[in-house]
Amino acid sequence: MGVLAAGPSLQELVSFTPGVELDESAPLSASDLHTLLDRIESRSEEIKDRVHKTVTKNYRQFLSIISGANGTVADVEAVARDLKSILDALGERREEGVGGQRQDGGGTEARLSFDLEICQLATDAEKLRRDGEEREQAIAVVQAIAELHETLQSTEREFLDGRLIEASGALCELRESLGLPADWTGDRDDQKAREHQEKINPYTFLQDAWVICYSKLISFLEDLFLQSVVLDESACELRVTPCLPCGDSDSGVDIVEVELWTILAAMDNVGMLNMRLAKLGDILFKGVLEPILHDMQIEVVIGELVSSTSQQRKAVLSWRSHEYQSDIAGQKDVYSKLIKVFSFFRTNLLVENDQWVQCLGHIIWPRLAEAIITKQLRKSVPNDIAELAVFQKLANVTAEFEACLGSTGLIPDWDETKGDRLSKFSSDVEVHFALKKKKHVLAKARYLLVQNDYTKFESNNEEIGTKDSDENGDMSLLWAEKCAITYPAKQLLELMHKTLQDACMSTPQIAMELYHAARDAILLYRSIVPVMVAGQLDSVHQVTALCHNDCFHIAHQLLLLKFQYCGALPSNVQKVFTFVDLVPLFRRLGCDILEGRLHLIKLNLMEALNHANGFQFTDQKKHFDTANSALHQMMIVLTRVLKIWQPLLAASLCELAMGKLVEAVVGRLVKEVLAFADISVEECGKLRKLMLLALESLSPLLGPASGEGDGPDVTQSRDAAEKLVPSWRKLARLTDLLDMSLRPITQSWESGDLTSCGFSSDEVQKLIKAIFSDTPLRTECLARISSH
């Protein structure tokens, strides 16, 4: 407490002279001793005064310390008395043990022997204490094992006596006492269940005994449940016995009545109820609910059966056929049957226990809802917009049915405001209708494109889809040129128009799906038709023309759809409505089909002209006839193509296509003639004759009237030929050059006539060198042509 400080040194008490050190080894004088005595007395008084003040100030604290010290002293005295008594007792024993040891010189050895004996006694006392504790623990363990074993035996007697709930509860408590996992059933490989085995072997015996008792109880409860709940599928009956006899009179066990709820409660205690209800739910769904959903003629009857021998009462649920009712009334009747069945389950089978009802609902409801949706609701989704109102009645009935089941607890996590699976499906009927309609449209479109014959056709000479005109009354942009289209294309377009018309009368959500269905249906043509007719495109001119017409006719129809339907569609569809982006795709497809066919025809024409052998040596009859035959074969190919295409293709397109084919032939003829290095006079005459024959034969193929008659038709055919075939005038002029002299040829070049026909300077010079021999006049003409 800091009461007393360190005392003053001798120097402080004696020395008064500043700066003079005191020699502590030197003797003090009398005066110094008197001074020192006075100072010590003064210092002593000062210390006493400070001690008094400190004690007075901390009186209670000192009192507490002194009291504790007194208690400690008393304890020490008690220990000393005890120790003295022990020492006295040990002293007597020492005197008996040492006998007549000498008093002198043997004290040290006696004391050492005495200390060793004390240590030995202490060790023996500790060992005895530990042995006693171990015996007590062993006795406690044996008592615990005996109690557990007795409890197991009593548990088995309890469930045989019909006290199932008490037995199941005791068995669960025993499992906890044995330290077993809640899901352990006796598997020796389970480490958690065997964690005590190595330390205490009797636990193995208890665990085995518990497993045996558990298995007996499970089997006993299962047998009772199967006796209480019987599903007779052959008789279409579900019989539930609320009370069963339990016991065996032959074994000396009294027979008692066990109620069904007791069996279920015991199953719940031992943890087997969920599995039992899962099996039961599967059996009930397959044996009771599925037949009711599958056959509307089934009638559900609930009754009671009394056994004539045992007087047992049984609740009976049966189902049998009756007259069939269709449509909404039939579906409502199915729902009422299901409600009656579930009411029987709740009342007789699950004895109004909400927890068990929910457990069974977890098993049955998802499958039942899916079955109702698949077998009833999805099939009832209308195929026409006008039938949506009828489906709404079914949706209301379905919602009432679901709410009734939800109120009984059979629907897990039931929310009265949101409903469950059936209500959600019914509320989304527009989505299901739209998806079903879309699927139907695409399936029908695919059927039309796959199953039809692409050689059958009809003309598209009807007005194209609209009666409107522009402000000036001009409808030319809304008309398509007359051509033939296939039946699949026509039916596909009709399907597309019908789908868009339905979209105009639908809700926004349905309209959007129908709009996409129309687009997808028309796109199926691009995906299916080229593959379907791939083999015919290379061999049949008719299919090529028809497929080309289909593509361009579809493209023309797509251009008009926005004007026809966009204004009548819901606003959400108007924002995205477009078919114009598909137009280039179909036009490109049509062009590719026709151009591919034109390429093959050109190859056939070139192969026919190859037989002319370059029109060489036509002054000889044999070679002339060969060249003439080649031209005839070429005309057969072109005439056949024209005969097939003219009634199918649009007139303007047919002319363009034939123009490309004739251009290939004419270009080949011009090339063959200009390739000659030397042409005799007689050969010039024969070549000219062949070229004139080719021109006369080709000209009718290009006229609008097919060369029928004379006069204006021939002139019109020639004009059309010059317009459609760029090389036509060149071949005609080349034919004239073969019969002209040198000077007129030179004059024609200088006048620009040959240039306008497509001749180049080199071509004219080469032709002159081939026809005319080398003379000064030819040299002059060549120079004039070269310099002009």
TrEMBL record:
Give the Centromere/kinetochore protein zw10 C-terminal domain ranges: 480-607
- InterPro entries noted in UniProt: Zw10/DSL1_C_sf, ZW10_C, ZW10_C_2, Zw10_middle
Q: Which superkingdom, per the lineage?
A: Eukaryota
Signal peptide start-end: none
Centromere/kinetochore protein zw10 middle domain ranges (all copies): 257-449
Residue ranges constituting the ZW10 C-terminal helical domain according to the UniProt record = 630-785
Question: Which Pfam families does its entry note?
Answer: ZW10_C (PF20666), ZW10_C2 (PF22766), Zw10_middle (PF20665)
Entries under PANTHER family matching the protein: CENTROMERE/KINETOCHORE PROTEIN ZW10, CENTROMERE_KINETOCHORE PROTEIN ZW10 HOMOLOG
Specify the protein name.
Answer: Centromere/kinetochore protein zw10-like protein
Which organism does this record belong to? Sphagnum troendelagicum
What is the organism lineage in this UniProt record?
Eukaryota, Viridiplantae, Streptophyta, Embryophyta, Bryophyta
